[in-house]
UniProtKB/TrEMBL annotation:
Residues 378-525 form the Thiamine pyrophosphate enzyme TPP-binding domain. Pfam families: TPP_enzyme_C, TPP_enzyme_M, TPP_enzyme_N. Residues 9-121 form the Thiamine pyrophosphate enzyme N-terminal TPP-binding domain. Belongs to the TPP enzyme family. This is Acetolactate synthase-1/2/3 large subunit. GO terms for molecular function: acetolactate synthase activity; flavin adenine dinucleotide binding; magnesium ion binding; thiamine pyrophosphate binding. The lineage of its organism: Bacteria, Bacillati, Actinomycetota, Actinomycetes, Micromonosporales.
Length: 540
């Protein structure tokens, strides 16, 4: 039965949003979107506001990533929307179902030079799955439903609507469209069987599982497939923690050995991009499992590439009816490499150096992080180390910016994470450079009583740029920041608290205070600027 709704454009939008399970909005004030606030305010729909629109979109993205439901940002016309474009683009790269609702200058005098008059669609269309201007209030529920359906349909991604002033302020009525979850895409069964046979028959197979495994609620199916076919599993993005670290098939450190030795590499739910050597694993054959045909890589010729609902595909892998080659020696070989790397890491994480090296920060952090803690990385080298030394114990508890690599996600992701999980530890790992993009939003967190812990790896430089530039040119420019800057004092001034740590022995107590503080708390760790994360390609 369809429900009839009436009211102004804001009320009509909210009715459709609620029907899809949207439970809050992130925004920065602007008159063009007042009706959306009015509808929210009068019905107790939570509004969280920020100091820069990028944080609103990143917060919405964190909700979408963590909770696997749509996240909503409401941005005012013109500059509000343009400030949100990097967030939208990140959501597009990450396949996050984010909806941005934008204000828009009035249609009836379009072209006369109204305040903030610009056509947003050409800007956002390339980075959204659905972008539309909604010209009448009556049309709002249909448009919201269409946008959210597009966002939630694999391959997922952001959607954008804008409302001309007179459309959102005027009153209309409409039927609330029924909410129908997207039907699972069924992969070609022959392709699935071919892939399963390749993996089962391989001598040295490896699985690399990425964000879409979590987004597609296929974590259990991944585990079943890995166990049934006895394949070691590596993860990236939101896939991290998909197998608990103590699982006999869970690997993290032996990746290089695994990819060098593998004869079949199975990449599930993540693109064959720069993070995975563009899908070039030497002589190994590649199986690319994707959640929609659009995600098949055009630059690689995989041996098989089933495209469809990941849960169904992985479940079919688990039920592969044929024989399985014995992988015990291969798994044991990787376990040896994994254990050796872990022992090296443990030494680095305990090292007593002056100045502190990033590894030690993570060594201390591991002692205080709960298994369900949510860790967020925003920065260069400091975050690469976080990826190396932190082992998420649960899927959906690690937020990195994804392949778009946009600095500035920190406080927005933190806000979305805190709103999603009021009772879990939220810890942002930030470079001092990255801090400059979003630290002002500590004010938003403090004012709205959203405590989080921020650990800054303060090396006084844009490390991930300075070191490579020196290596390339023998000098560097535009890569220095003020050494020893008191980012903790900034947070204090904004309503939080914090402290600076210079000695490794002081890290543990400082982190303990941070997680007990009940306000945004920044631990400003002065780290060794000469320390550079070892990487083969340094362009970022
Ligand atoms: C919005 C944006 N601007 C610039 C870059 C390029 N970039 C990548 S890493 C990096 C340095 C980050 O420095 P910092 O946050 O201090 O971390 P560090 O490498 O020093 O640990 C820069 C500038 C980017 N990825 N995103
Ligand atoms: Mg730095």
């Amino acid at each position: 039965m369809t429900e009839r709704v009436e009211g102004h454009g804001g009320e009509l939008a909210l009715a459709a949003l609620r029907a899809h399970g949207v439970r809050e909005m992130f925004t920065l004030s602007g008159g063009h979107v007042f009706p959306l606030y009015d509808a929210a305010h009068r019905t107790g729909f939570p509004i969280y506001d920020v100091r820069h629109e990028q944080s609103a979109v990143f917060a919405a993205e964190a909700v979408a990533k963590l909770q696997r439901r749509p996240g909503l940002a409401v941005l005012t016309a013109g500059p509000g929307v343009t400030n949100g474009v990097s967030g939208l683009t990140s959501a597009f790269f990450n396949a996050s179902p984010v909806l941005v609702l934008g204000g828009r200058a009035p249609q009836f005098r379009w072209g006369s030079g109204s305040l903030q008059e610009m056509d947003h669609l050409p800007l956002v269309a390339p980075v959204t799955k659905h972008a539309e201007t909604v010209f009448s209030a009556d049309d709002v529920p249909r448009a919201v439903t269409a946008a959210l359906t597009a966002a939630l349909t694999p391959h997922r991604g952001p959607a954008f609507l804008d409302f001309p002033l007179e459309a959102v302020f005027s009153v209309g009525d409409a039927d609330l469209p029924a909410v129908t979850p997207p039907a699972p895409i069924e992969a070609d069964p022959d392709e699935v069987a071919k892939a399963a046979a390749l993996i089962a028959g391989a001598s040295r197979p490896v699985i690399i599982a990425g964000s879409d495994v979590y987004a597609g609620d296929a974590v259990e199916a991944l585990r079943a497939a890995a166990e049934s076919l006895q394949v070691p599993v590596f993860t990236n993005g939101m896939g991290r923690g998909a197998l608990p670290p103590e699982h006999p098939l869970a690997f993290a450190k032996a990746r290089r050995v695994a990819l060098k030795g593998a004869d079949v590499v199975v990449v599930v739910g993540t693109p064959l991009d720069f993070r995975l050597a563009f899908g070039d694993f030497g002589d190994a054959r590649v199986v690319h499992v994707v959640d929609a045909p659009s995600q098949r890589a055009g630059h690689v010729e995989p041996a098989a590439s089933p495209a469809g609902d990941l849960r169904l595909i992985l479940t079919a892998f688990a039920g592969h009816p044929g024989d399985r080659a014995d992988h015990a020696d291969w798994i044991a070989q990787l376990r040896t490499a994994e254990d050796a790397a872990k022992a090296r890491d443990a030494e680095e994480m305990a090292a007593e150096t002056d100045p502190i090296r990033p590894a030690r920060v993570y060594g201390e952090l591991r002692k205080v992080l709960a298994p369900d803690a949510i860790t967020i990385g925003d920065g260069g080298d400091f975050v690469s180390y976080a990826g190396k030394y932190l082992e998420p114990a649960q899927p959906g508890s690690w937020l990195d910016p994804g392949p778009y690599g946009c600095l500035g996600t920190g406080m927005g992701y933190a806000m979305g994470a805190r709103v999603s999980h009021p009772d879990r530890q939220i810890c942002v790992l930030m470079g001092d450079g990255a801090a400059g993009f979003s630290l002002m939003d500590v004010e938003s967190l403090a004012r709205q009583r959203l405590p989080v812990v921020i650990v800054v790896g303060n090396n006084g430089i844009w490390g991930l740029e300075k070191h490579p530039m020196r290596a390339m040119y023998g000098y560097d420019v535009a890569a220095d920041l003020q050494p020893g800057l008191r980012y903790d004092k900034v947070v204090e001034a904004l309503g939080g608290a914090g402290e600076t740590v210079e000695k490794a022995a002081d890290l543990g107590p400082a982190l303990a205070r941070a997680f007990d503080a009940g306000v945004p708390y920044l631990v400003n760790v002065l780290t060794d600027p000469s320390d550079a994360y070892p990487r083969s390609s340094n362009l970022a």
